[in-house]
Amino acid sequence: MRIVDLTQDTKQDLLGTLLKRSPNNYGSYEKTVAEIVGDVRARGDEALCEYTERFDHCHLTSDAMRVTRAEIEEAYTQVDEEFIRVLKNSAANIRAYHEKQLRTSWFDAKPDGTILGQRIMPLATAGIYVPGGKAAYPSSLLMNAVTARVAGVPRILICTPPGQDGKIVPVTLVAADVCGIDEIYKCGGAQAIAAMAFGTETIPKVEKITGPGNIFVALAKKAVFGYVSIDSIAGPSEILVLADESANPRYVAADLLSQAEHDELASAILITTSRELATAVSAEVDAFLNKLSRKEIMTKSLENYGYILIADSMKDAIDAANDIASEHLEILTRDPFDVMTRIRNAGAIFLGEYSSEPLGDYYAGPNHILPTNGTAKFFSPLNVDDFTKKTSIISYSREALECAHKEIELFAEKEGLTAHANSIRVRFEES
């Protein structure tokens, strides 16, 4: 891995390089995606079946689009029992963590007859996109579906692309069943996002779409935002390790590669105050690359977006970490909890040498749907609130309104909205 000194210039160069990976730079594909979305909106199932044959090389009819219970039962025979047990344990951890996020409606009543409050209700429907084939990620299905379930969404459906044989990846069906979801449709890509956003003869319209996908899925979510809610337009995966001389270079190297293997656009960055650690980590990375299966992908990722930055002080290292606002941030220092208190921007923070990033991907419980490309400065991980909506409640008695009506009328008149003022004034006209 390249080793460079952390300066203002190298930090700005790095930030510029990372931002080039943003989904906002996928403009060359937007026209194609817009055409697919518009076609599905206009022609429904007919367009879906045509795109499934074109992109997934699978001939599918509307009546075969929904997965049957028999297909789910068959999937169980193709997934080993030990992994099914792990899926259930992971789902339980995710559920327990997200149950702590639940909030209740509240009302505040005052003696003068004023009642103010907030009603919190789950969305009625949610659609989860699940990639298929080699990119099948049952962990992401669990993160989305369990969170929606905890929020109380009564109807959750899944869209995922079929193989050429018309079947869905078995682990996807088993993971969905573990979450109690049996409404699964054989439909992928931008066309699936359009189907969930607008509805077709077979696939119902939902109120929110979540889940990872390729460039076409990301742009389709961007295109339908406003017709439905979405989780985010996710960019490539990224990890930043913040370490001092106490860190184990072998652990650091392994953790950097855990993200570099996602794809060639993934970023893996180490910021350290120790030049000795930097050199040791680089050597360990080279050694691991010769042992791991996705060497070509990891090598490309590190060539393009892999960095080891040497900082003069931990303060400089922390400042840089806050500027980068990484999706995953590991803190491998003598006192990681102290460093954590000075971190403002990160999707998820992993503290100590036994809290490596894959723990969050698969098992611990916090959501792994995280903000990328610096958006951790203003976005949060997927959470229960994403599947709820809040409504303000306002009730005033005559006595309460009488105390405030002249101020409200004045405010409205200052804005030139005389009908607003009149709406209050008429309630206190002399009879």
Summarize the structure.
This protein has 431 residues and is of the alpha/beta class. The protein has 17 helices and 14 strands. The longest helix has 19 residues, at 81-99.
The termini sit apart by 83 Å
Strand order of the largest sheet: 1-11-10-9-12-13
| Fraction of residues in β-strands | 15-25%
Q: In terms of per-residue confidence, which ranges show pLDDT below 50 for 5 or more consecutive residues?
A: none
Provide mean pLDDT, rounded. 94
Count of individual beta strands:
14
Number of helices: 17
Class per helix and strand makeup: alpha/beta
Oligomer: single chain
Rg on CA atoms, Å: 25 Å
Main β-sheet: number of strands, strand sense, barrel status? Answer: 6 strands, parallel
Q: Please tell me what the overall shape is.
A: globular
Helical fraction equals: 40-55%
Describe the 3D structure:
The protein is an alpha/beta fold and 431 residues long. The chain is 45% helix and 16% strand. The chain has helices at 8-19, 30-43, 45-56, 69-76, 81-99, 138-151, 170-178, 189-198, 215-224, 249-260, 275-289, 295-305, 314-324, 336-340, 357-362, 398-414, 418-425, and strands at 3-5, 106-109, 115-122, 125-129, 155-160, 184-186, 208-210, 229-230, 238-243, 267-272, 306-310, 328-332, 348-351, 388-395. Helix 3 (45-56) packs antiparallel against helix 8 (189-198), helix 4 (69-76) crosses helix 7 and helix 10 (249-260) crosses helix 11. The longest helix has 19 residues, at 81-99. It is globular, with a radius of gyration of 25 Å.
